[in-house]
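Quick check before the chapter quiz. The format below is the same one you will see on the exam, so make sure you can read both the input and the output lines.
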Amino acid sequence: MTIYMNQYQTKALETAIFPDEDQTVAIAYLSLGLCGEAGEVANKIKKCIRDGNSYSGIADELGDVLWYIAVLAHYLEADTAMDLNDIAAKNLYKLSERAKRGTLQGSGDNR
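Here is the expected output.
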């Protein structure tokens, strides 16, 4: 089954249940959820390294991270109508430009 980023975002929004009556509350809630899920990914990887286990359970956690990204992007970009396809394309363009300039490594946003 092939699913595209915008399709995923639409479906993810159908399952969003949280206090979203205030955009600021929604953004805070989703940001905290994203951090929590990213922490779960890191913790599972840490345990895989420690115990020598496979990374087989990580995909489920990455899916949770993707859900938070999709829904958060909807709330953050509501005024500019930027969707996940746009965000993904913009990110790939940024990385390809950095690769052309040889600045993938290093720090800072403007490299």
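If your answer matched, good. Residues 101 and 111 are 8 Å apart (CA to CA).
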